[in-house]
Amino acid sequence: MHAFRTHTCGALRKEHIGQTVKLSGWIHRRRDHGQLLFIDLRDHYGISQLLFSAGHPSLDAASRTSNESVVTITGKVVERAAEAVNKDLPTGEIEVSVETFHVESAADMLPFQVNADKETPENLRLTYRFLDLRREQMHTNIVLRSQIISKLRELMTKQGFLEFQTPILTASSPEGARDYLVPSRVHPGKFYALPQAPQMFKQLLMVSGFDRYFQIAPCFRDEDARADRSPGEFYQLDIEMSYVTQDDVFAAIEPVLSDVFKTFAGKNKVTAAPFPRITFADAQLKYGSDKPDLRNPLIISDVTEVFRGSDFGIFAKNIEKGSVVRAIPAPKTADQPRSFFDKLNDWAREQGYAGLGYITIDANGEGKGPIAKFITGDRFTKLKELSGAKPGDTVFFSCGPVAQAAKLAGLARTELANQLDLLEKDVFKFCWIVDFPFYEWNEEEKKIDFSHNPFSMPQGGLEVLTKAKSNEDLLAIKAFQYDIVCNGVELSSGAIRNHRPDIMYKAFEIVGYGKEVVEEKFGAMIRAFHFGAPPHGGLAPGVDRMVMLLANEPNIREVIAFPMNQQAEDLLMNAPAPADPKHLRELNIQLSPKAKEILEKKSQDPAEQGAPKEAKAANA
């Protein structure tokens, strides 16, 4: 018999009755019935119930062994009494009558319960992540992550993509976020950077003659945490293809995403390929966002002309200064109490806006509310026509410069859908956002700047750049840039790349960077393009975000085995940590006075020493 197990804890069934087995695992839960002791033994595969009968020589030892201790037992598989069958457990028709019991590793008092998904402070969970990962939901999430990554690899390989690994120690990247720098010992004063993405390397692979590349790529960005973004590092399905148009990229990735989501979505429906395509301009107008949640049925409309020259002076004056008015419909809310509208106004102010104007439409189709007296007759008819509002509905308004009005309207659309429970259930809705503007106006620096990605191909190529005579002409240029969005979560940005040096020099010249700057900052890529570069493009859907959606988790840290907290700290491994002075000397690094002062203060702070004070015993 094997030293530790003949079966896993999730394997035993009725057909094993009568067999002598050996199991190893963690004590999940104990139930002491006086002369009988039941223990649920758990391993990676499941749970088996152990039975210690009265007079068993190990009964006392087993009853005193703490939860989460690792034990090995031998025993005979027996049938449970009919009234004791657990239909929710795959092993619920049997139990193991224990013959021998051995403690492999005793557990200390637990900082929190593992056998129950009780709310626990996140910092405590991350400090003892190895315990947190034993909990059923977390364990399931990490298994799901592995399965999703395996499926992605399988589907990419089937499409003829080759998997390559690109460097981790590299040069600083133009991705836009802060780099993580790594000092070089053998080149004093010089630094490597951890890659924000393998962008340049995957393009260089296309220039090198490889046709289809993918990688489950680790990426590193020194940026703040959000619910859908982990600080420090993340993984993406990095893809690049040669001799392709935008349509070819979409046709390659849509089956992959569709198949992965259908495989792991359970009862949820998944958008069938081809996914809907929405222009950036339409997304901003209809949804107030470039990552719209299509489960939300509310559609924003432009009602600027309804208010232009109207008696509602606040909007009319702002329109003359260039503002627009967006209308957000709220179905069947006209009979809501005044408090409903007051709370929405308060909510808008909390977002940093002046408020939300509104008009309700009564059962007779007449307008009511503070603004209604200013919008009558043909204006009111036009408002109902443009907004699609019907008797019993309310129309809310956002007024301001285009981007500002769109943002408030988009936030209000989401808030109303949540309050009114309008989101479509049990569905994953994908869409592409296309035709991003190539340039945008940088208000802070009062100049034209790149909008989305400086390395994408402008629609119209060199000709459209050279023909532009004004800022308006430049701002009208679209790029072959695209995002893929699912349920309001941006999974990826991508583009057809600018593979021609002449177009790249011109694109950068327009935003104020000369040829020498381009060659200094992007030397390897621009040099490669001078030796024959194929048209190419790609994208990189975020693996963590995909898993987060499929696991139905609101926070990305719930689907990462060892994440950092929101302050970019690894509480389990105590990173970042002060470096040994000897190591700093080897790297020719000297700490600034400010850094020394901060470290000194932290070294004297009791809260910085040892495990968190919240870590109290939670053993049952």
Describe the structure.
The strands form six sheets. An eight-stranded mixed β-sheet has the order 6-9-10-24-23-22-19-12, with helices on both faces. It has a five-stranded mixed beta barrel with strand order 1-2-3-5-4. Strands 13-14-17-15-16 form a five-stranded antiparallel β-sheet. A hairpin with a 4-residue loop joins strand 1 and strand 2. The chain has 620 residues and is an alpha+beta fold.
Write the layout of secondary structure elements.
Blueprint (H helix, E strand, L loop, with lengths): L19 E13 L4 E7 L2 E7 L6 H6 L5 E10 L14 E12 L16 H6 L1 H4 L3 H23 L3 E2 L17 E3 L7 E3 L5 H9 L4 E10 L10 E11 L3 H19 L4 E2 L6 E3 H8 L13 E2 L1 H4 L5 H8 L3 E7 L7 H13 L6 E5 L5 E2 L8 H11 L6 E7 L1 H18 L7 E2 L1 E5 L4 E4 L4 E4 L10 H7 L3 H5 L5 E6 L2 E8 L4 H10 L4 H7 L1 H7 L6 E4 L3 H8 L30 H6 L6 H11 L17
Parallel strand pairs: 3-5, 6-9, 11-18, 12-19
Antiparallel strand pairs: 1-2, 1-4, 2-3, 4-5, 7-8, 9-10, 10-24, 13-14, 14-17, 15-16, 15-17, 19-22, 20-21, 22-23, 23-24
Helix pairs in contact: 4-6, 5-17, 7-12, 13-15, 16-17
**Which class best fits the helix and strand makeup?**
alpha+beta
- For the largest sheet, list the strands in their spatial order: 6-9-10-24-23-22-19-12
Percent helix:
25-40%
How far the N terminus sits from the C terminus, by CA atoms, comes to 33 Å
The chain-level mean pLDDT equals 93
DSSP strand content:
15-25%
The general outline is globular
How many beta-strand elements?
24
Spans of at least 5 consecutive residues with low confidence: 613-617
Question: Biggest β-sheet: count, sense, barrel?
Answer: 8 strands, mixed
Quaternary class: single chain
Gyration radius, rounded: 30 Å
- Count of individual helical segments: 20
